[in-house]
Design brief:
The chain is α/β, with parallel strands linked by helices. It contains 15 helices and 11 strands.
Length: 443
């Protein structure tokens, strides 16, 4: 609970640095005659092209840092919030890069739209590194197109993740063009230091946290599957063991990216939460997925841990854990790890046919005083989080199930629309928004 002010401070500093960077590059643009050049059509187009290029480049590098798995940002924001900011920065930077490409070319063509295609060809073939920049833009287009919701809905997570890696290639291919031909990168010592520092920070963050740390942790822990246990007709729990797991900095409620090394598609990672509190000797995940070929002895690669749906965000002794389906996995782990006295923790368990972890939750109820409320049945409507048995509205039902809900921290995990319905009902029932903790596997 003491960490919350530190996390809030980190969020504030990160946000301030983001805006300071954007304002700084805008200042350098203005100081270099950017505003004055707007008075003439031809130079105005070029000037706006320079500005959009600067802002787009800055946001491109911010995107890389956001998804570099920096522990400070992960702990302060949570990966789902980082992904949301990353998406906004991504689409904004992409639009700015396209605007830069169009405006610069149009301006170099003396504002004559009919001469713009020819000018574009000359730029690509004659200017240093422009061909690389064009290839980088094509990679960014591929990344953006596959990130549109309609396109993502037709892709498996694994395929989307693999295609999304082209974004890194796109950013990397843009570097030579900016450093060789971009005057804002070269005319000012301060600007040169800023851009090189930003590029170096992004590259270092990727090499350390996306490459180095995962390789080191996998070499140290050497995870293998010890057993695969059916939980329901389409749900299994996978138990894993390895070396020195007491040194893996993972907590109940977190998730990791997993790759099982003896099945088709082993190169494609999937995010799964722990479904049992880590004890330093073994790990367990519970998934609704086809894991054919995964058997005892299967080597496993992992990346993480990620997420802040943990004790870290807790502000009250009283907690309400509300989960649905396989979303119960991280809540089951939290119910085991959190510190609470009888009556301080309640778990609302939504399921359609059979509850997951029924016997384990019975043990926690007897030994720890966890109050478990089972809520079976089909969901009564797309906007409700309750089953079809409920005769009252969502908010009233929540207040009846947990009379002191407004004084508790609320942890939620389940399908995104269902989780949003729980979040809305919790806030309407009097829970402050900052005490409703929802983390989704956003992508």
């Amino acid at each position: 609970m003491r960490r919350r002010p530190l996390d809030a401070g980190a969020r504030g500093v990160a946000t301030a640095l983001l805006w300071a960077g954007l304002l700084l590059v805008t200042y350098w643009w203005a100081a270099g005659g950017g505003i004055t050049d707007l008075g003439v059509w031809e130079t105005g187009l070029t000037s706006l092209g320079r500005l959009t290029g600067l802002l787009g480049s800055d946001l491109l590098l911010v995107q890389v840092l956001l998804m570099a798995r920096l522990p400070l940002l992960e702990r302060a924001f949570g990966q789902d919030r980082l992904v949301a900011v990353h998406r906004k920065a991504g689409f904004t930077s992409f639009n700015l890069v396209l605007a830069h490409l169009v405006l610069i070319t149009w301006g170099y063509a003396a504002g004559d739209l009919t001469q713009t295609p020819g000018e574009f060809w000359d730029l690509v073939t004659d200017y240093p590194a422009m061909l690389l920049a064009l290839a980088g833009t094509a990679c960014l287009i591929l990344t953006v197109v596959t990130s549109i919701r309609a396109a993502r809905a037709k892709l498996r997570y694994e395929s989307w993740h693999l295609l999304h890696l082209y974004g890194y290639l796109g950013v990397g291919l843009a570097l030579p063009h900016q450093l060789w031909t971009g005057q804002e990168f070269l005319t000012s010592t301060a600007a040169t230091v800023y851009w090189w520092s930003l590029w170096a920070s992004a590259a270092t963050a990727i090499l350390v946290w996306r490459v180095g740390v995962p390789l080191w942790r996998n070499a140290r822990h050497r995870l293998r599957v010890t057993s695969v246990v059916p939980e329901d007709h389409d749900v299994v729990s996978v138990y894993l063991a390895g070396r020195e797991l007491d040194r893996l900095p993972v907590r109940a409620g977190q998730f990791l990216g997993w790759r099982f090394l003896n099945r088709s598609g082993w190169t494609r990672g999937n995010p799964y939460s722990l479904s049992a509190a880590p004890d330093g000797r073994s790990l367990r995940i519970t998934v609704r997925a086809n894991l054919n070929g995964v058997a005892p002895g299967t080597p496993v690669l992992f990346e993480g841990p990620f997420g802040r749906l943990t004790e870290r965000v807790r502000t009250r002794r009283g907690v309400a854990l509300i989960g649905a389906g396989v979303g119960m996995a991280p809540l089951r782990a939290l119910a085991e790890e959190l510190d609470y006295e009888p009556g301080e923790a309640v778990l609302l368990h939504r399921f359609r046919d059979r509850p997951l972890f029924a016997r384990e939750l019975d043990v926690l109820a007897r030994e720890r005083g966890l109050r478990v409320v089972e809520l079976p049945g089909h969901r009564r409507s797309p906007k409700s989080w309750l089953g079809d048995w409920a005769p009252i509205d969502d908010v009233t039902a929540l207040r009846q199930l947990v009379p002191d809900i407004a004084g508790r921290d609320v942890y939620v995990c389940g399908p995104a629309p269902w989780s949003e319905a729980v979040r809305w009902a919790s806030i309407a029932a009097g829970v402050p928004e900052e005490r409703v903790h929802v983390e989704e596997f956003s992508w």
